[in-house]
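Summary for the funding panel

The consortium committed to producing paired sequence-structure records for every protein in the target list. Below we show the first two records in order, beginning with the earlier of the two.
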Amino acid sequence: MRQNSLFRWIPAAISLWFCGGLFAVFGVFNFWLSELSARGALPHSVGGGTDNPRSLLHGAVENGAVAAFCILGWYFLRRRIPGSLPGGTLAVTVALLITVGRWLHWQLVGANQLPWLEPMLVWPFFLYAIVYGYRESKASVAE
């Protein structure tokens, strides 16, 4: 690890734990909301339709997967052996692709009420960790 580099381990680790924790909390929250919606306790689920609980449950699974990939990426990047650095970078890239796919889906459907939120407040954390993992894996190969 180069000392004068912009990309360092501590900010990358903090960003991965922050994103992992944030998506885990939202995954649990989505699961709780899907349970409430299935019982008809939410205003949008009064009609008894299954679309709202299903989409909330799908969001809970996606959030859980993103959280798992963030923590997995942190674990692999922390080990700092040559095979784990690309693996950690790949795990964080998969987490980013899940969030991009979900964001794009809700943009196309027209139901994204804060379209700037994820690209401005979430994706930079993922991109930082990806660039860190890529640079460190290239540096470890060069050594």
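The next record, for a separate protein in the list, is shown here:
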Amino acid sequence: MRRLILYSTAHCDLCDEAMDLLMSMPGLNGARLDVVDVANDERLMERYGEKIPVLRQGQAELAAPFTAEDLAHFLEQ
């Protein structure tokens, strides 16, 4: 099963847009999506705070802002 992690936080318009894009992508059925709020972890906040939302698949990461085309290409990896 493919596992995706979306590093995000509350009250983040880009994060909401990223989630909407993810939900609209065909072919994600069966994928596991974990949403991690970086505000709950100081280490994650340092690493991702200025780049969120960040989508992680394996060791690859896609940082905001990204388009539907960027996301589709990333998910093909």
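Regarding this second record: The chain has one domain: 3-76. The mean pLDDT is 92.
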